[in-house]
Design brief:
Low-confidence stretches: none
CATH class of the largest domain: Alpha Beta
Radius of gyration: 19 Å
CATH architecture of the largest domain: Alpha-Beta Complex
Distance between the termini: 9 Å
Bound molecules: ligand LHQ
CATH topology of the largest domain: 2-enoyl-CoA Hydratase, Chain A, domain 1
Shape: globular
Mean pLDDT: 95
Oligomer: single chain
Number of domains: 2
Largest sheet: 7 strands, mixed
Structural class: alpha/beta
Strand order of the largest sheet: 1-2-3-4-6-8-11
CATH superfamily of the largest domain: 2-enoyl-CoA Hydratase, Chain A, domain 1
Length: 267
């Protein structure tokens, strides 16, 4: 948490403040619909944030009134790639990068999230929505199947049948229903959304980074494994957490009846 920085790129804006890196999809005229440049830049920016010691938390959000309207449909005709090749080259590395990133990623859904944009909204470790945000598993409107992780994320959050219904009917979910269904953790007013998200992210940034990295790894592994595997994984990762200075600091702070300081220059 040593310096603040801003870098500007045509399709992804990056700003780091108080340990929080905000990556903003920046094609507002198209509701941040994704072309290859946007997807590859976003993945590259995430990888940069992962190794930047000034970054402890990453926010993904959109410029303008949309979060992400999915694949840019004006950018798909005349491609010399198959759908499979396209997904494997762009969307899938992005989703894998988010889920394996060794720092918390917040999907800050400021507006409509449709198609692969809905998948991106679901892929964050934490999902914060603006009141006017909505999510549409819109793929079936153009007779495609949900991709970019939606088939994995959505049924885990809302159950099989609700996921199937949302996908089959391409029904839009507003923020009130999203909160009830568990598609997001918090909804904030549009007017204060960016500030609320930053404040939330700064709370996360003050938490023990190593413990959160290991927690993310454990939870992601547990989602696909057995109880036995989870117990073994917890025992192994607990050793890594327990051997880290953060643990000493947490215990010492408890004994000294003070707040722990989990942010150190050497991190
Ligand atoms: C757009 C888009 C867009 C281009 C809004 N593209 N311009 C697919 C294929 C290949 C491989 C990989 O995976 C995928 C996965 C997918 O993501 S498939 C799903 C693709 N996305 C869609 O089908 C969504 C299309 N957009 C919409 O249905 C609406 O725009 C939504 C419901 C998102 C928002 O509606 P409104 O709030 O009424 O906004 P709008 O429709 O007026 O859009 C504003 C502008 O953005 C407009 O441009 P214009 O020049 O007329 O102002 C749209 O054309 C443009 N835009 N989405 N995906």
């Amino acid at each position: 948490m040593t310096h603040d920085s801003v870098t500007q790129d045509s399709v992804i804006l990056s700003q780091t403040r108080a340990g929080v890196c905000t990556l903003t999809l920046n094609r507002p005229d198209k509701l941040n619909a994704a072309n290859d440049e946007l997807l590859l830049s976003l993945t590259a920016e995430l990888k940069k944030a992962e190794v930047d010691p000034a970054v402890r938390v990453v926010i993904l959000t959109g410029a303008g009134r949309g979060f992400c309207a999915g694949q840019d449909l004006s950018d798909v005709s005349g491609r010399d790639m198959t759908f499979t090749e396209h997904l494997n080259a762009t969307y899938n590395p992005l989703i894998r990068t988010i889920r394996t990133l060794e720092k918390p990623v917040i999907s800050a859904v400021n507006g409509v999230a449709a198609g692969a944009g809905a998948s991106l909204a679901l892929a964050g470790d934490i999902r914060l929505w603006a009141q006017s945000a909505r999510l549409i598993e819109i793929f079936s409107n153009i007779a495609l199947v949900p991709d970019s992780g939606s088939t994995w994320f959505l049924p885990r959050l809302v159950g099989y049948s609700r996921a199937f219904e949302l996908m089959a009917l391409a029904e839009r979910v507003d923020s009130t229903d999203a909160l009830k269904m568990g598609l997001c953790e918090h909804v904030f007013p549009d007017e204060t959304f960016a500030d609320e998200v930053q404040a939330y992210a700064e709370r996360l940034a003050a938490r023990p980074a190593n413990a959160l990295k290991l927690t993310k790894q454990a939870l992601n592994d547990a989602l696909t494994g057995t109880l036995d595997e989870a117990l073994d994984q917890e025992a192994a990762l607990q050793q890594l957490a327990g051997d880290h200075w953060e643990h000493q600091e947490g215990v010492t702070a408890f004994k000294e009846k003070r707040a722990p300081n989990f942010v150190r220059a050497e991190d």
